TrEMBL record:
Iron-sulfur found in the keyword field: no
Record flagged with keyword Transmembrane helix: no
Annotated keywords: Repeat, Signal
Organism: Candidatus Ornithomonoglobus intestinigallinarum
Residues of the SLH domain: 570-633, 675-729
Protein name: S-layer homology domain-containing protein
Cited InterPro entries: SLH_dom
Signal sequence range: 1-30
Chain segments carrying region Disordered: 300-321
A Pfam family it matches: SLH
Amino acid sequence: MKSKRNKKQKITALAAALTLLLGCAAPSFAEGADEAAEITVTDGAALSSEEITSIVKGKLDIPAEFSQFSISSSSDSDGNMTYRLIWYIDSDTAYGEISVMADGDGHILSYSKYDDYESDIKLVSDSSGDALTEINQNELRKMLPECFANDYDTYLVTGDPVINPDGSGSAVYKRFVAPEGGDVSETGSKYLYTVWGNTINVRYRKTDDGYELTSMNSNHDYDAVFGENTPDSVDINESYKALSGGRLQYDLLYKYDEITGKTTKTPVLRFVLKDTPFMDPATGEEITEDSSVIYPAGVPEAGGGTTSNSTAEDSSHRAELSEEELAEITKLNTLMTSEEIMEELINAPEFDVTSDMTVRSERIYKNTETGKYYISLNIANDAEGDERKTCNVSANAETGLITMFNMYSYAPYNGETEALTDEELEEAPSGQAILEKYADGFENYALDDRSGERRGSTYINETYRLLVNGIPYMGSSANIEFNANNNKVSYMSISETEPDTEFPDPSGAVSADEAYKTLINSSYSPIRVFVKSDGVYKKAYTIDLNGVCVDAVNNVVVNEWDNEPVSDFRLTSQYEDIEGHWAADMINQFKNFGYTVGSKDGLFKPDEYITAEDFIELARQTMMALGSDSVPLEETLGIESEADLALPVTREKAVTAMIKYAGFTKIAELKDIFLVHFDDEDEISPECFGSCAIAQGLGIVNGSGGNFEPQRHVTRAEAVSMMYRYISD
């Protein structure tokens, strides 16, 4: 059984992902409408974080048991503020979280609720949509009063609401404006104007007492001003067809047959629009959408806008704050500012941050695991070409100590600086003096002798681990890369992960000799191999562990990724080459399911890199059987030709393809809302970061030794492991 803590870790990694955007069919084109109503808004003074919290809380029904509170803030380069407020339960018996994103005026941008509620309801047959009416009239109207403030400009449910047999459901509201200030509900739909990009996406669930909202995402433009609309002067259908460049084409459909276990490819003939532009009804010409429009709202780049009367001046939305909420807000307002952190960086000799660099975006947040507050900054200068510099920085917002620094320079390497010789490397300074200034309790850290040796370069990488009971603890590390010539830091990361339980007492652990005996007596004795050395393959012995180790307390062989005992696979192996392999059980179960991708002559070849072709086939066999959305795997993996199908796949690309194939595309592409907990997270490509965070939150990937190794190619066994964890969860 999974623990409450595991559930908490998964929901934390995916908290922002719960506010996903739901697709729906667009309404038909407006015909015969004359003029849309004009809306004005009133500017207001900036609100304090206390006022923001009071307004947001006043729009919600926070159960009393959600007594713990956390608030964080972020701003973009234009100064637009976004706040994230979290009310939660965190105890040995329960965990729950209510998370809200709000802009600087107190408008709620997104909402999500997670708890341990389990209903006795087993099946719901009612699909009348009464649940939507109830939510619209209660929670949603209270949460977004400005969106339902009048009759001529309001939101209506579009398409058919989804109500699943288990009682969960979803719906999409779109914003409509009636001509000449009429009542939207009484005006014929063909005369309504849809306000493009303004949607409210909701998810809900049936409880023993009715229905409740579980997540919401609002893209309402509070500054919208509607002008006159020109009359229709062209044939709408024919003009739009010409503008959009529609054509007939053959497409290829992929369909998985559960009986045969094969995927068929069927060509179909379709009419497809090349583009879906906005058309002027008077001229038939394209109207260019404002590039400043941001979709979706609810992420740090969004927010801003002026304050409407209904938010800033209407006290009915205010709520009394608890002592804990007031304490959190007070703490937030006393933390170090981005200006103070910048001053520290400019004056620190270790960092090449100059006075011409400015803060482009910032975020202040609290790590609820450790209780510490952090500030993250993106800093850059305005130079172009070789003079351009940018860096990401995180610091302890109470002390100013830098916890992460990553500098990007756009100047090409000119080869003028020669690599250090072995003698110079031995005499070069270490990063210890730098890290002593920034890592709390660094006197308890020690250089990790497994983090790699110094090599002939001016840049030196070092990894230090926290010692617990004299034993290296992989969860707390200090990593640094610096130029040995001037001690300038190019990368530094200090990570601290506190375990949920006490560290095992090493006094009862077996010795290294005893653990080794246990290992070699469990089918992991040394094997004979040929290894290339000095250009010649030489005979040698090695132990092929493949993700297993010894639990030193219980003296048993276990998997690295779950610490569960490794079974004796010799009796159940269905392939000749997976006996004793760490993934043998999963590979065997996959074969029982009928998944035999790439196996020939009784061999699975688990440690060979999987080709793109085999990975695509494996994904389609396993994930389509669960009803996952069909997306172009080839595009995600960068397949452009038949030859590319024979190439191996990197770990980050494999994970990204899986997550998008599972239907998380829109969530994974949201910016600046995800966190991952890998020591080498800076090596993850930006376009893959969201997918890797979701995969870690779902337990699909766990990494090894604190690293994810995103650029390494994925083995056939690892690919099966990823798929196995996905379908098992």
